[in-house]
Amino acid sequence: MRQCQHSTVFAVYNKFIIDLPSHVGVQSVCFCPLQSRSGSLYFFLVWFSGLVVLGVEGVSVFDVVKTLVAALAMPLPVAVALMVVGVLLGWVGWRRAGRLSVSVGVLVIVLAAWNPVADRLLAPIEAAHAPLSLGAAADDAAIVAVVVLGGGWAPHPPWPASTRLNESSLHRLTEGLRVLQRFPDAQLIVTGTGRAADAVPIALGYAEAAVALGVAPERIVALRDPTDTALEAYAVREHLGTDARFVLVTSASHMRRAVRHFERAGLTPIASPTQFLTGRDDEKRLSYWVPSAQALRKTERAVYETLGWWALELDHRGR
Predict the structure, then answer these.
(1) What global pTM score does this model have?
(2) Number of domain units in the chain
């Protein structure tokens, strides 16, 4: 086959991004994506993926792929992609296929933002663990710690510490403090940080807010290094050992997956879920049946947690 004029570009990509063997490299094939509209899009996506993989310093390829898949599999990006594809199909003359793609995209976003669908997807995940009854848990004198898993926060604004926590983090810390007050000898273990090299750990935000809310600093242990739930589980195991009894606090939608991560690390947490998103809305109100951003958020949580559940074992490879 003849060699196309852009083969050098793709040979460089093969060499430094994919590192394909030369006998299957693009130099041996006259495939030049730059010579067509769809090919130009392909080349941009290839270039962008290489840029992402090579440009994220200190982050593994698995973490990058996991983050990208989680972001792109959300209902809104999927719906937008379907509508864009539909427009492109119509542009090249495939009008019937284009209309179908656009219609499916609209249907996806409408259903994802509709409470009956969102609740049906998320409610079973949140129902995996019931709220912790302190009346029963308070009898367990062997509980040595309350573990609050990381979330998000804004470390830099000049606001009170509790205000800089995002919604899920504030719910988690509040629940952690509710449980902690029943166990005066227990530690408050707060965990988590971001993947960026300059990220300020959410564990420090939790600790600062907990002190501001009356927790003695000597009772707080901040695990600053874990960047995901699996690493949080192993960090807690390193600190407490495998036989310690402790209460695990996180959002209800996250609890099923979090408990499984801790079990894979050899631990047996007592679940204390918080921030229930389902079961709050009155089905008799008209607003419940109107698509909304709030319902879309619930669907996104259901999709995110389902993807995380499917990929859970990958986080424990080699451990």
Answers:
(1) 0.79
(2) 2
